[in-house]
Amino acid sequence: MKNKLFRFAVVAQRANVIEPGKELFSNIKGNWNKSFFTSKNPITIELACGRGEYSVALAKLFPNRNYVGIDIKGDRIWKGSTLAVEQNLSNIGFLRTDILNVESFFDDKEVDEIWITFPDPRPKKRDIKRRLTGNRFIDLYKRVLRPGGYLRFKTDNTGLFHFTLEELSRRDDVEDIQSTEDVYQSELRGECFDIKTRFEEIFASKGESIKYLRFKFKNSEF
User: Fold this and answer.
1) What angle, 0 to 180 degrees and rounded to 10, lies between the N-to-C axes of helices 53-61 and 74-86?
2) DSSP characters over 75-116
3) Contact 135, 151 (CB under 8 A)
4) Alpha helix (H) ranges present in the chain?
5) For helices 158-169 and 135-144, what crossing angle results, to 10°?
6) Helix, strand, coil % (nearest 5) of the chain?
7) pLDDT digits (tens, 9 = 90+) for 29-82
8) Range with the lowest mean pLDDT among 6-20, 35-49, 80-94?
9) What are the b/e assignments for 22-57, b being 16+ CB within 10 Å?
10) Is residue 220 over pLDDT 70?
11) How far is CA 49 from CA 31, 67, 118, 173, in A?
């Protein structure tokens, strides 16, 4: 508890974190490249970013892009924001909110790319509606993602991976779906830049293959 309270206090003072109680929390929508970042570069968001390792690694690799890691847990965001500070990265920020609220923080088509990496698989039937790759969430992503922008998804969970593919197969507004059951043995490997989070390393050490897919929405009105 003491560690959490300490982390919450640190995050509250961090300029690279937007959370309830901070001025930008209520007016950042449509203004990321005006009020938060110092450049107008394309924005990538990572949903349920956890400790933020993936977003931080991407921000370091691609200084000409802006990144926002989104998670509801402040103590997790503390880790990512700390890594960003330690590495002197100005092209990454963190937003503390529920994923269902994403439309409250990004304008239509304001996002260039979306990553979802190792989300909770929500294996119980009663939790299907909470899976981040379910159709109600995909509908949200479509509204903030620019036409032609990719949504990229990595998981170790076979059930969630197949569920996601099934959800996409029932939609008529997606295209260019590419997927693999083992990204490190696939020609799609380069799209993930060999970035491995702590969780990915744990899963891989247990013999789990890492699944990956990406797709984009057709260029049409929602």
Assistant:
1) 30
2) HHHHHHHHHHHHTT-SSEEEEES-GGGGGGTS-TT-BSEEEE
3) no
4) 2-13, 53-61, 74-86, 135-144, 158-169, 198-205
5) 70
6) 40, 20, 40
7) 999 999 999 899 999 999 999 999 999 999 999 999 999 999 998 889 999 999
8) 6-20
9) eebeeebeeebeeebbeeebbbbbbbbbbbbbbbbb
10) no
11) 21, 11, 9, 26
pLDDT at 198: 86
Contacts of 196 (CB under 8 A, 6+ apart): 204
Annotated active-site residue in 75, 107, 120, 172: 120
Chain centroid offset of residue 8 CA:
21
Whether 83 and 122 have beta carbons less than 8 Å apart is answered as no
How many separate helices (H) and strands (E) can be counted in the chain? 6, 8
Q: What is the three-class DSSP state of 212?
A: strand
Q: Could you confirm whether 120 is annotated as catalytic?
A: yes
- pLDDT over threshold 50, residue 222: no
CATH fold label, 2-217: Rossmann fold (3.40.50)
The type of residue at 8 is F
Cα-Cα-Cα-Cα torsion 127, 133, 136, 140, nearest 10 degrees, comes to 140
Give pLDDT, residue 204. 83
Entry pTM:
0.95
Contact 135, 172 (CB under 8 A): no
The residues spanned by each domain of the chain are 2-217
Pairing of strands 211-217, 150-155: antiparallel
